[in-house]
Amino acid sequence: MNYLALLVPVALAMGFVGLLAFFWSLRSGQYDDLDGAAERILLDDEEDEGPLPDPVRDGTASRRQRSPKEDGESKLYSGVSNAKHG
Q1: In sequence order, what DSSP letters do the residues of 52-72 get, joined into one string?
Q2: What is the pLDDT of residues 23-60, one digit of tens each?
């Protein structure tokens, strides 16, 4: 029962600190514009230029970025030899 003498005041202090933080956030205006952030995510940015370029289609991809089918070789994997072992 001695542990309750410590845990109850600690729990009450933590609740009081949480309540103070909530009142501070109310006073500082954290809850003034609840719908603004939700609507801003749906709006397009004017500097948005579209999707990023695809380096494989542009021909600027390195051999490690290409798959074997796109590179024209049957088996091209990094770290694996293409020589046939007999």
Answers
A1: PP-HHHHT---TTTS-HHHHT
A2: 999 999 988 888 887 888 888 776 656 677 776 677 66
Q: Which of the 8 DSSP states describes residue 4?
A: H
- Residue matched to tokens 């956030």: 25
CA pair distance 1, 4, nearest whole angstrom: 5
- Of 80, 59, 76, 58, nearest to 68 by C-alpha is 76
How many H-runs (helices) and E-runs (strands) does the chain carry? 4, 0
Instruction: Tell me the pTM.
Output: 0.43
CA–centroid distance for 5 within its chain: 43
Q: Token match 């909530």: residue?
A: 22
Task: Tell me the per-residue pLDDT of 1-30, one tens digit each, with 9 for 90 and over.
Answer: 899 999 999 999 999 999 999 999 999 998
Strand, helix or coil at 3? helix
Long-range contacts of 73-79 (CB under 8 A, 24+ apart): none
